[in-house]
Amino acid sequence: MGHDEAGRRLVNEANEVYYGENEFHVRLRHLFDFLQNTGGDVDPSVAIPPLVRKKVTIEVELHDIWHSSEVLADFGSAQDAKSDYHDEENGEIARWTRGRLRNVALLTNAESILVVLLGVGVVDGSDLGTHQTIKDIASVVRALIGQFGGRFDITKVLTRGQGLGGSIRSYWDRPSAEARVCVFNGWATTEQLMQVEIARWLDEDVREPGPDGLWDRLV
Asked: Which superkingdom does the taxonomy of this entry point to (predicted)?
């Protein structure tokens, strides 16, 4: 089907209905296949991403030792060799995740985009696995927020606890002066700490250092 004009028209109409009228929940490792419709009966000239118009949820597993081993065993070395910043312990898995998460930018017509960080730990993301994952994908999330605005959200969801979770999008907000003071004095909330850390990780921290240089040692 789809090899003659009538067949291609039917396939195109079916794709418009399927991709345009359904919501999708996709694991990150399958996102590229979803966008390319690999294995499906479709004319290669059909671009799938612009057809997606409703909510898309992308599930990202946390960057812990178990997930890193699983991904690298399945997919080998990272295809995206460019690093956005210094990747400490999780260099390959960080680049692998960023490279695939960038494909979300192709979903230009989606009603909303939800990235779910799925794993153990705590809902606010202060556990080590979530904290590392946030650092690894911070630059891509910043770009997606810039592109999609209010249509984009990112949440942490526990694998245990019947899907308990919550949004962490505010971690990418610019840290306030109060947040900086709280971090410096050691009584910051998780949100305040993450805002300051993400700003530093992405070189967005434009504050002026104090006369004694203490701000430089903020985090």
From this structure: Eukaryota
Could you say which residues of the chain have pLDDT below 70?
Answer: 1-4, 38-45, 64-90, 161-162, 205-219
Pairing of strands 165-167, 152-158: antiparallel
Q: What is the pLDDT of residues 135-191, one digit of tens each?
A: 999 999 999 999 999 999 999 999 876 678 999 999 999 999 999 999 999 999 999
219-to-134, 141, 180, 195, 198 alpha-carbon distances in Å: 16, 21, 9, 11, 10
Instruction: Tell me the C-alpha to C-alpha distance, in Å, between residue 92 and each of 83, 117, 119.
Output: 9, 18, 19
pLDDT of residue 87: 46
Q: State the residue for tokens 């794993």.
A: 119
Which pair of tokens denotes residue 206? 């434009």
Which residue type, as a one-letter code, is found at position 45? Answer: S
The residue to which tokens 């998460």 are assigned: 101
The reported pLDDT for the residue numbered 204 is: 78
Q: What span, in angstroms and rounded, lies between the C-alpha atoms of 207 and 219?
A: 13
The token duo for 10 is: 């039917």
| Among 152, 60, 48, residue whose Cα is nearest residue 98 | 60
Contact yes or no for 137/154 (Cβ under 8 A): no
How confident is the model at residue 203, as a pLDDT?
85
Strand-pairing partners, residue 58, are: 26, 115
